[in-house]
Protein 1
Amino acid sequence: MKFGKEFKKQKVPEWTEAYMDYNGLKRILREVMRYKQSLLHPALKHKRASQQKQITFMDSTAFSAQHLQSSNLNQSKTDVENQVIDVDTLQRDGSKKIYKTMFLGRSEDGRDVETMFFAKLDEQLNKVNTFYKDKVKALIHEATLLNKQMDALIALRIKVRKPHLNRSNFKIRRSLSNAALRMHPTNITSKGDKSSGKEHMGLTPEVHTIYDHKKDESTAEKELNSARTTGCSTDHGEQVRNHDYQQDPLKILDHVKINNTLDSPISTIRGVFKDSKEQDLSFNKEELRRVEEQLRHAFIEFYNKLRLLKHYSFMNLSAFSKITKKYEKITSRRAARSYMKIVDNSYLGNSDEVTSLLERAEGIFIKNFSNSNRRKGMESLRPKAKREKHSVTFLSGFFSGCSIALLVAIALRIDAGNLMNKEEGTQYMENIFPLYTLFAYAVLHMLMYAANIYFWRRYHVNYPFIFGFKRGTELGYREVFLLSTGLAVLASAGFLANLHLDMDSSTHGYKTASKMVPLSLVTFVLVITFCPFNIIYRSSRFFFIKRVFRCICAPLYPVTLPDFLLADQLTSQVQAFRSFELYICYYGLGEYSRRQNRCHRHEVYNTFYFIVAVIPYWLRFLQCIRRFYEDKDAMHGYNGLKYFLTIVAVIIRTAFELKKRIAWLVFALVSSAIAVTMNTYWDIVVDWGLLQRQSRNRLLRDKLLISRKSVYFAAMFLNIVLRLAWMQLVLGFRLHSLRKMTITTTMSCLEIIRRGIWSFFRLENEHLNNVGKYRAFKSVPLPFSYNENEDGDETEDDEDDDDDNNDKDD
């Protein structure tokens, strides 16, 4: 694979614009190549001269002036290679370095184009350096926060696991978590600055053994005493030892509280009655477990950030090396070595903070969260990449063929039995068909999801990050397609078995068994879904179950993007919910024994017929209320109003379906029209981000992943048409029952297709928002909250200072 394609493939999707513009530089080099070729062909000389007048080049005199003013100019270079270019380093804002290259080539041979190339190269180097330095500083700040969190965690472990320790007699040094991150902004160094040494890039190396809380007190004290005598050979190490002091390890717990993130039903209920976002420590094992889990998650995310940033540095350095070598090959000028010396001495190529932090973060995680088991720790930090299996592709094709064959067999069986022309057959289909449409809705939704995954991957939408999947466990479109075709085979085989057992005169003795086929299929699917064993993508099944549970408990859990996306999917499965209700009536009320669907004669069934249709929209409404309460954003309030209007429309439509009165028809049409108008506007403008007046793409948005704009206009048109079809369904309630069932099923399938199209553009818009903000990481809440009056970086243990701090706290 060529480097250009590999470079594009290996980019962090959210940082695409922060990478070196390799393709842009290649285009300039192609311009240089064409110019060189025109010099070799006299016939092209005149044409090249006319084209060159149309190109605006950067004024080379500006580089000459800059060259004369720079204090870093070295005029004693005599080597031919060093005379091709001269790179000046300028200082901005005190510390920010800006690189400017002056091309020293002869005036002929396309000097202007090559000058433009180096100007573009400098621009990209400055851009990459600035981005990389900003990200490193952000990670250094996060490292200091994690350091304080680890201090509190170690103290909490001592308090919970060793409650009998005497605080007055048990003293340890200030650095409780001797494996904690010691990264301060003042310690940022590079390879060129050896005064501080590597040890200040990450963890403080003064203590190399983590306090083992499982050992007895005497052994622990020996280890701590041994740790105190361990010192650093550097000057800074002497400074650190001079500031070492004795402190009660549990005293830190007097200045911390647990963040009340309202991430559980109990904490949410407490938060309603308590305004405080913090709560005192309870010092129990359950609290320690939750804190350890939160910090474990935070460390994994922090480590992944470091890995992505290191990969970013490596890929950009490789790109600079490749493009300068291409320049040498095309122009026969030796400038790659000179320029790469500048790149290697820049912050991007010279700093090693990320590498040092990676090594030390591994040590922390392995010691504190993996019981010193390196293999187990690295499996958590670096999960194995998922591999595509040939068996998945084979089984997907096999199940696809089987499902098509079974559907053809079902159609032939219905035609052979002439079921659609007999009253008895029509009644039978009215009873049996709704039971199997539940599977049809699920299969269609999974097929749309598989198609979306395929196109998300094709257009580099980072869907695993958006959905919050655990790395290495996300399903690809092949796996989802396999599950959908497998379910299709299962449902089709059950339907065909029902037809055979009920319609064949030789199988009248098996009618009781035939009645239980649909229930058996549903039971089998539910058992597989909730199966605790590691089979059939357990991680994905549990992720789905967890998200469904959070949707059901909508106001009691914080609403994340996967939660409301799933709730939006459920709003397109209203008929599936009603089919599930039919199962309960059919088997719970014994209607299957009568061979006639009389569920609507039960008042309880009709009541739940209203409730079931409203449940998905109600859950989404509660999510909007929760987000409005937390974020105080009016947009969430308007979104909740949209779902409330939809709930009103669904209730009125259901009432008209059951009552069949003209008044209800008018109310249903009016309410549905209002709901459709607001939902369509919200889909296109808010969720998709389209129809922007100031956009450079007319009636679209500034950034588009799909190059053909007609796709977006077609999607908007389809969305409007399918929304109107949902409204038109009101008029179909007066049709014959079988026709009405067919139309309802068709419209429900179209709604699922509309939701699938909506999902693609919704995630595309979310991805582009992440790209615009360079947001490639999840925000992980930390468990502990420190008092603002306490200075977390104190280096003195003075009783007067402690008293002052206590006074401030009071």
Note: Residues 111-161 form the longest helix (51 residues).
Protein 2
Amino acid sequence: MTRRGVGVSPGIGHGPAYILAASVPEPPEGATYDGDASQEKQRAMAALDHVAGDLEARGLHAGGQARDILEAQALMARDPGLIVGVKSLIDRDVSAERAVYESFGKYRDLLTKAGGYLGERAADLDDIRDRTIAVLMGLPMPGVPTDAAEPYVLIARDLAPADTALLSKDVVAAFVTEEGGPTSHTAILARALGVPAVVACPGATAIPAGTRLLVDGASGEVRLEPSDDEVGEAVRAAEARLALLSEVTGPGATKDGHAVPLLANVGGPGDVEAALANGAEGVGLYRTEFLFLDRATAPTEQEQEDAYRAVLEAFPGGKVVVRTLDAGADKPLAFLPPSSDEPNPALGERGLRMFRIFPEVMRSQLSALARAHKGLPADLQVMAPMVAAPEEARWFADACRTAGLPSAGVMIEVPAAALRAGDLAPAVDFFSIGTNDLAQYTFAADRQVGALSRLQDAWQPALLDLVALAVGTHGKPCGVCGEAAADPALACVLVGLGVSSLSMGAPALPAVRAVLARHTLDQCRAAAGAARASATPEEARAAAREHLPALAELGL
């Protein structure tokens, strides 16, 4: 028997199923307390502070991206709005346990309704709530086993960062969740750990505990009770594939020597180690919003400068493409409120549009970038998100030049920008295509809604047409930094369409490098033409593969 979800971290994992169930009971409705309200408030605040401190300690121990995520989660535990809600309920004779439960519940509902990035943070909020209630009730902290007899497949409705941050491939063979998406913390941490992961897998938690599972983090397939032969075959294939992929090193290029710089997507200095370990030639997408999220005030220019400089120093002579603050929509910031109550935030004031409203935030970020780059040999390129019109591109490029930055570009993630890239080109030095948002806006399909995943497939011929239009004949370099670049077959197609560089999560780099090295530029162009001539993503994928024979040789 096989279940299917969305593969978000490639690889093969196998082992017994461990079902992570809710272990903290809901405090009784109407529960009150004996004694003084101020003492009950102190009890609640002490529990929240304990949980925040525990999360920070876990993050410090884990390091890297896990540290950043857990520190952000600790800030959620200290959120002033939540604390006011808890105290307000206690003033109405509600017990600390129930006050925490109800206050967090209200915030959870808001996040779930918001969807997107915020919707995927609901699991984080649930985890903080449960940990706080466990402290108040004197119960063990919820969590997962770290001393199992053999690596297991961790199954849950969703996973919180604290559940996974301290795990390793020696403990967990794979993650499988019923909820979540490619940008959920489960997916992010699984990729950072190099652990296979499948999300949005219906009925996963109904799998009996102890059931032997075989998980394919690329295809999204979860096979129940596989035979020893099936497991052995899958493992051998994965090992052989890894050995083949590891044979190719050095800069990215096609078989006939056409250079394709292979870059890494990073969220901060903590991601640099993995990028270097996987042979990244630089950074194609530095997501600077991670410096700003979950804060009551903006980071200082010095904080920003330190974070930018740490990444620039890691790639002397290499390219580092920084995306300026992509706030708004599913990534709202407390200190940058939208100017109105937006009925559809994804189509509202986000990205560069927020900079037009708060120009001082942009000036601060551009100034910090210029100072961080001073005296360093890295090739710093700065780009703005959500640019739709030539006037916006000119405005941003002028701001970059005023700040003393050497290169200004724009993201192509709005169909209008792809269709009229030639009109944007005179104002900027380069383009970078964000395939995730470009697909979302092209097909009117929220990228976090699993039911619409087919419309978000980067193999959609209409999306490939837009990529081709964005590359155009304007002569400006045009890279891709969306998830599409991490698909080895699609990477060849993108090169065939004329894309100049590819940026992806660090673990995907070896496979893309190996596949490019085994195909000529003409083969990539033929694959691109065949994919665009198709009518469906399935047909496009199959048509392209006919021109890319080394995919089968590499087991991809």
Note: The chain has a mean pLDDT of 87.
